[in-house]
# Entry
Amino acid sequence: MNPAARGRLYLVATPIGNLEDITFRAVRILREVDVIAAEDTRHTGKLLQHFGITTPQISYHHHNRRERQGELLQRLHRGEQIALVSDAGMPGISDPGTELVQACVAAHIPVMPIPGANAALTALSASGLATAAFLFLGFLPPKPTARQGVLTAIQGVQATLIFYEAPHRLVATLGDMVKVWGGERATVVARELTKLYEEFWRGTLAQAQAHFQAQPPKGEITLLVAGAVQPATPAPAAVLPEIERLLATGLGCGEIARRLAATTGLSRRTLYQLALAAQRQGS
# Structure
């Protein structure tokens, strides 16, 4: 890169397993930048060696991100070109790269994404679950109480849910999902994506819990779960018996509409009109 050029931060996607999944553009950028900020320099070093890239590296990870961020920003302000890479996939997704990107944006330093492999989208594309809408949540909290709190908060989300999970916590996470959501949701456990032992396991949450309890998983895991099913809205005539019952208890039409709107999915206006008609008919 031209040392007089304006400093830029390049977010370079690296393979999630198979080294052939890197792009020509990513290889070129890694060769041309002044330095590569890597989550694990030893891990990235193997990738660089494979492609004959000799660009120097500097570590940037969760434990040194605060002290390293200032140094990287100074270098960028001097006009240096820096590539940020994670151990696998797109940097800035579920890793400390997010903070560096935010700092660059705040400092008006250009951030250039170099797209490539991503475990969440790779798993989703082959999962067989709905892809029109999805919610990526990264890693859930490791402690059960906090994890169950998150699961409760997203219980009604109707989009496909995507998580990353460590193999030693998968069974516990599946157990909490069964506890909070029930065991019937369709589930896909994608393991070791693009690698030799790539596997897509499909079943229900309860089946997944039993399977991986009996056969503890190994390797990198992406967990996908079908979203909540929206309850069918009943036909207005179907709620008339309940409206008549509530009228008999002395409740007014407005209160009946408020109560039933929360459980039936029908609008308050529709329910109020039904209650008012039933009240007139009964008087």
